[in-house]
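[recover] target loaded
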C-alpha cells in the first residue's frame, strides 16, 4: 500500500521518487493529481498504467512559473494575459508546443499543442525543486470520480503507487477550467474551477462554447461514473434512492431517501464544487442503486458542476476513455 505523508514532510521523498521515474499522488488546489516527470517517457507510461487508462490521452503539464511555461509552450498575447491574470490557479491553457520543449510525446499523445497549468502550494514547490514540468491527470483510476482527499486517492490507487502526499481536502474540488486562445478568440474546452464568467469579465471577451478541440477524456460522455445510476434535476425522490441535494429546499419525497448529502445548504456554488466528488463517492458507497440529484443552477461554477454530473449520468457503454 502507498505511504501517506503530510505535505509539510513529503517534499524530499516525493522528489526522490520523481527523479527515479516513479509517480506520486499530490494535492493541487483543484483535485489530487497523479504526477510524473513530463520529460520521462517511462514515468508518463506509469501514470497511464496506474490509472488504467484504456487509451493514451494527452495530459496537463504542470509548471512552477511562467518562465518554465514559455520554455514548453508558445504564448500569444492573449494566452499570456490569461496566465498573468489567473496563474497560479485552476486554469489550464492549451497552447502550441515548442519544438524543443523536451516533453515526452507520450505525455502530449503526439499532439503539437500542450495543456499547461501552474498549480499553487505543494505541487508548485515540488516542480520548482525538480526543475522540470510534471504531467498530472486527476489521481483516480480511469472512469472513476476524481479524488479530493488523500484518503480517496489511497483507496482508489493505493495498491498501484508508492506515495500519496496528503495536503488535506482540495479547496476548489473540481478540475481546472481548460481554455484555448487561438486567432484572437478564446475557446472553453472544459468548464472547471474558474467560472467562465470570471474569465470573460477579466478579459472583456466572450468564451466560445462547444468548441471541437481534441476529444479530451474529460470531455468523454461517461466520465466520473459512480456505480449507482445518476438521475439529474430530480424534482422528487423515489424509495431507496440516495439524494444529492443542493440549496435550502428539498425535492418532493426527500424524507424517503436512503441517504442525503447537501452540496451546499445555502446554495453556494463554490462550496458545492468543493463537496461534489467526495459526496458522489459517499452516496455511491451507501449502496443505493440510484442517486437522485437536485437541480444545480447553470451559472458560475454551476457550469462545471453540471458538466461533471452529466458525465456521471451518461450511459456506461460510453465509458470508453475516462480520465
Ligand atoms: O485540475 C486539473 O486540471 C487536474 C489537476 C490534477 O491538475 N488535472 C486533470 O487532468 O484534470 P486530466 O488528465 O484528468 O484532464 C486533462 C484534460 C483532459 O480532458 C485532456 O484531454 C485535456 O486536458 N488536454 C490535455 N492536453 C490537451 C490538448 N493539447 N488539447 C486539448 N485538451 C487537452
Ligand atoms: Mg480526470
Amino acid at each position: 500500500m502507498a505511504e501517506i505523508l503530510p505535505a509539510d514532510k513529503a517534499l524530499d521523498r516525493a522528489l526522490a521518487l520523481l527523479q527515479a521515474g516513479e509517480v506520486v499522488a499530490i494535492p493541487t488546489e483543484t483535485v489530487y493529481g497523479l504526477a510524473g516527470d513530463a520529460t520521462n517517457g517511462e514515468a508518463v507510461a506509469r501514470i497511464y498504467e496506474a490509472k488504467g487508462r484504456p487509451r493514451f490521452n494527452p495530459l496537463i503539464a504542470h509548471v512552477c512559473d511562467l518562465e518554465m511555461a514559455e520554455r514548453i509552450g508558445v504564448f500569444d498575447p492573449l494566452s499570456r494575459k490569461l496566465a498573468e491574470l489567473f496563474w497560479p490557479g485552476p486554469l489550464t491553457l492549451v497552447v502550441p508546443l515548442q519544438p524543443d520543449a523536451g516533453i515526452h510525446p507520450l505525455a502530449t499523445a503526439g499532439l503539437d499543442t500542450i495543456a499547461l497549468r501552474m498549480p499553487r502550494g505543494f505541487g508548485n514547490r515540488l516542480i520548482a525543486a525538480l526543475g522540470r514540468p510534471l504531467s498530472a491527470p486527476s489521481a483516480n483510476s480511469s472512469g472513476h470520480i476524481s479524488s479530493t482527499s488523500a484518503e480517496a486517492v489511497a483507496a482508489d490507487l493505493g495498491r498501484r503507487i508508492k506515495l500519496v502526499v496528503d495536503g488535506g481536502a482540495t479547496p476548489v474540488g473540481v478540475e481546472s477550467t481548460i481554455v484555448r486562445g487561438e486567432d484572437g478568440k478564446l475557446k472553453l474546452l472544459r468548464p472547471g474551477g474558474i467560472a467562465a464568467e470570471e474569465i470573460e469579465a477579466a478579459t472583456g471577451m466572450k468564451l466560445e462554447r462547444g468548441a471541437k478541440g481534441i476529444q479530451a477524456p474529460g470531455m468523454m460522455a461517461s466520465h466520473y461514473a459512480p456505480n449507482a445510476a445518476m438521475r439529474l434535476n430530480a424534482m422528487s425522490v423515489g424509495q431507496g434512492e440516495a439524494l444529492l441535494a443542493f440549496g435550502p429546499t428539498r425535492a418532493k419525497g426527500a424524507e424517503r431517501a436512503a441517504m442525503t448529502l447537501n452540496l451546499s445548504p445555502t446554495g453556494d456554488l463554490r462550496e458545492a464544487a468543493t463537496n461534489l466528488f467526495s459526496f458522489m463517492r459517499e452516496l455511491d458507497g451507501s449502496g443505493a442503486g440510484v442517486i437522485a440529484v437536485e437541480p444545480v443552477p447553470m451559472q458560475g461554477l454551476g457550469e462545471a458542476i453540471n458538466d461533471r454530473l452529466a458525465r456521471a449520468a451518461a450511459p456506461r457503454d460510453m465509458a470508453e476513455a475516462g480520465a
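[recover] notes: The domain at 229-321 is CATH 3.40.50.11030 (Rossmann fold).
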